[in-house]
Write a structure and sequence with these properties.
The chain has 510 residues and is α/β, with parallel strands linked by helices. 27% of the residues lie in helices and 20% in strands. The chain has 13 helices and 23 strands. Strands 1, 2, 3, 4, 5, 6, 17, 18 and 21 form a nine-stranded mixed sheet that branches. Helix 5 packs across helix 10. The longest helix has 25 residues. The radius of gyration is 24 Å and the shape is globular. The structure holds flavin-adenine dinucleotide. The site of flavin-adenine dinucleotide has 34 residues, from helix 1, strand 4 and helix 5.
Amino acid sequence: MTTTAPTTAPAQGPEEISTGEIQDAGHVDVLIVGAGVSGIGAAHHLRDESPGQTFVILDAQDNRGGTWWTHRYPGVRSDSDLFTYGYRFKPWRGPSIAGGDAILDYLDEVIKEDGLEQYIRYQHRVTAASWSTENRRWTVEVTRDDTGQRLRFTTSFLWMCQGYYNHAKPYRPQWDGVDRFQGLLVHPQRWPEDLDLAGKRVVVIGSGATAATLIPAIAAEAEHVTMLQRSPTYYFAPPTTHELAVQLEPLDLPAEWMHEIMRRQYMTQYHWLARTSFEAPDELHAFLIESMRPQLPDGFDIDKHFTPRYRPWQQRIAMVPDGDLFTALRAGKASIVTDTIETFTEHGIRVSSGEEIPADVVVTATGFNMSVLGDVAFTVDDEPVDFTGHVTWRGIMINGVPNMAYVFGYFRHSWTLRVDLVSDLVIRLLATMRDKGATMVVPMLRPEDADMQLRPFSDPENFNAGYVMRSQHILFKQGDREPWTHMLEHEQEREILPKTDLDDGTLVYR
Ligand SMILES: Cc1cc2nc3c(=O)[nH]c(=O)nc-3n(C[C@H](O)[C@H](O)[C@H](O)COP(=O)(O)OP(=O)(O)OC[C@H]3O[C@@H](n4cnc5c(N)ncnc54)[C@H](O)[C@@H]3O)c2cc1C
């Protein structure tokens, strides 16, 4: 790994750069794209476990936090517990389920304790990355969203921590009659800070985690909230604070112990949930449905509104801590319509049954547009990379793309558990390169992999959330054997990744 021009200086201010032509912004050993939980976690591990490497973190947004900065709608919160959503290295001290603000505070503590602020450059959107084998480096093109200036970084290793969806363009299906609707249309990715819902009739389209979180948070203020769903989602209503945490509280344990004990508790619980979803899906289905029944109003049509058509965990199970969504339904402040939208009208939405749901505000909790590696235009030795023809190497690298790793977290467990595991592997990879005197590492199909059957990014039998299914045609693939597979469960990967042989012939060092 080279350290030619150590430019991990604090972010340059706009006044230091003249506008116009593309400006040279220097070279770093590792360039991290994204300052969300993945990018901040990656930077922590790099700084701690691979000291001496120069690095910089670029993010298109004007602040840290990624998802937690983009989503600031009322009530926004995790649906994982924070002991496993928090990093391995930084104890979580609050209740198991936390609001977006508390997660941002936690990330701020990591940034402060690690002195990371000086390495983060906000409003730096990476638009292109070109690898040169001759020069053994990436040239990364950046546009500053605040000034429009264009910058050119070079780096020996690109670490993509860009998340999985487009933060600037939320997904909103095409609906008939939207233009004639006279009320307000809002997407949770762009929640207006001053939105006053007092006395308003609100329709939330969607039934996933966002809808389930938002509805109880606005139900008291709004006149009424209707959840309009095409089809139901699984919900689970754990306590906001785990009973084990309540029992341990009086023991006044060190924060590190508490963090570790609760992590193990939640890991065991989630591993059981994931395993049961494959091995005994009918039993898990019955358990989830029956656990909701006592919390719903008498006579509630649970078959119609709360009985999904898919296997539990084939899409994410939405958490409703302390059953707050059910409380809003019981109080009559919220209700559910399960039907398809026929058209928007001037004053609401008409569904296929002919019913018109009146609305002053419609919230489109309809999900994301996935992005492939931050929508960056990649080239390798002047050849544009069409990711649809490439396969993943363990969900961390891509075949034929040198010196590049990415982070993609778990669907059925806390995303961050994978940030720590992937970071360990990347640090080990950088050390292996150093030991070998290599300046390039690239996953390459072995002769015996040449005719390997390529499979879609996500097998719909395994996980078929709408945003993934909509994007399969632009995503890279997986193979039919290790190490060309991904989306394993945390229970397996926590064994596999630390022991992965980095010299098994699928990684080529030069
Ligand atoms: C409301 C909500 C709640 C969630 N709750 C949970 C939960 O409880 N548990 C769980 O496990 N997961 C949850 N998720 C999934 C969540 O996205 C991940 O947990 C995690 O936040 C992803 O972090 P990340 O850093 O990988 O990506 P992101 O949070 O998406 O951050 C990526 C960052 O990279 C930047 N970026 C992307 N492309 C570029 C580019 N080309 N140039 C420069 N910058 C770029 C973006 O601006 C962004 O700031 C939730 C998601 C949402 C939307």
